[in-house]
Amino acid sequence: MPYKVEIRSILESLSASREVSGSFGVPDVALGDQSYRFNGPVEFDITLTNAGAGVVASGTAHAFVQTSCVRCLCDLAVEVEAEVEGFYVRPGNADEFPEEQEVEFIADDSTIDLEPAITQSIVVEMPFAPLHDPECRGICPVCGGDLNVAECGCAVDRHPSPFDSLKGLDLDVENPS
Ligand SMILES: [Zn+2]
Ligand SMILES: [Zn+2]
Questions:
Q1: What is the dihedral sign for C-alpha 154, 143, 70, 66?
Q2: pLDDT digits 0-9 by tens, 54-82
Q3: 26 and 38 in contact (C-beta within 8 Å)?
Q4: What is the enclosing helix (H) or strand (E) of 153?
Q5: Where in the chain are the domains?
Q6: Which residues pair with 63 in a beta bridge?
Q7: Which residues hold their Cβ within 5 A of ligand 2, which is an ion?
Q8: Listed residues: CB within 5 A of ion ligand 1
Q9: Could you tell me if 122 and 87 are in contact, meaning their C-beta atoms sit under 8 angstroms apart?
């Protein structure tokens, strides 16, 4: 949902600034096969500064997100912290900036929406392939058992290697004659 901020007070003078802290709810996010559900709102602390050509938003945001381990699929809670950067200009001034400069527009002469920049910064910081533990052993592809809980004994070659086919050969590599 939009987070509108009235910035008339800092538009009058160069380098005037104000602090904005707040929170807002964000819908679930999916990145590829991985889905992320927000446990509560995204919270942020941002400073808005009149930089002449526009208003710069700079600060931090954080959120608690529920997702799942990519190996064993167990539920997993992660805290996501992000640096927020935003740049807001009057609609008539957009041509003054190079195309690669991402700008958003100041609406109704004095209102900006902080939500897109904050949500974007959080999404970028989400772990792409989260693991509940760096050593997670995953799920047995044969029986579906969680290998973190118990070794199931299925005959699975968990670490196929190009040298496996040599294992059956009786090579005397220790004492080459
Ligand atoms: Zn796991
Ligand atoms: Zn198994």
A1: negative
A2: 999 999 999 999 999 999 999 999 999 99
A3: yes
A4: none
A5: 4-125
A6: 80
A7: 140, 142-143, 145, 152, 154
A8: 69, 71-72, 132, 136
A9: no
